[in-house]
Amino acid sequence: MNLYVNGKNRTTECCSLCSLRKELFSEASNIIMIYNGFQTENDIMLNEGDSVSFIEKGAMPSEDELEALMMARHTPFVHKKVKRARVAIAGLGGLGSNVAVALARTGIGHLHLVDFDIVEPSNLNRQAYKIRHLGMKKTEALKSEIEDINPYIKVSIDNVKVTEENAVSLFQNDPIVCEAFDRAEYKAMLINTLLEKQPEIKLVSASGLAGYESSNSITTRKVFNNLYLCGDRKSNAEPGRGLMAPRVSICAGHQANMILRLILGVEEV
What we know:
five-stranded mixed sheet; single chain; alpha/beta; Ubiquitin-like (UB roll)
């Protein structure tokens, strides 16, 4: 029988999942079994062409093994496109840091992280940083987080403030840009600059995610060609309405999901 085992073709006479595990591992108690994309403890009968992954608990799989596992979870068609994709994230605060983590877990091929700031204690209520990152540049702290999630993702960083003068050169190699700035004037600057000077770039922006209003008011909509806006478009941060982890992460999820859809060629919200 020909199977796809841990990312490689393998011929075996084993007819069941557990018998194949026993053939490959003398100590099988610490092995996770993934059968056609689903984790299971059951002894399933195998069929020609099945995809099987065996992962040792607590151990980092090889790049081939992790690739096979991601492909099984996402389906080959989806994962191959995600693996080839390059995405830039402008601003690594509550939105950008959480978008980056979501895309890293999705198996994105190349992330371009852009920010000039450092991690401060006030960031810890909603951003994807930890105590150990305090004082570090956000780009470097987030790169280390991504390496802990998937060390095989390529991460490039720019420790600079994005301006109207450098925006085009910074993002000239990025087909998709996530706008994740805190301030409205910076958002407008980046959107207007890129849409005018690099209209082929697809932009995923956000507006309206402060407070603890209903999660259901956060949506994604296509504003016009190549510009997508996530949020409720009205709940701005102000006295009495702060930025809190739940709504920030919900909006970041909207942005990450729209980016994934664009990678897969789905341009409608």
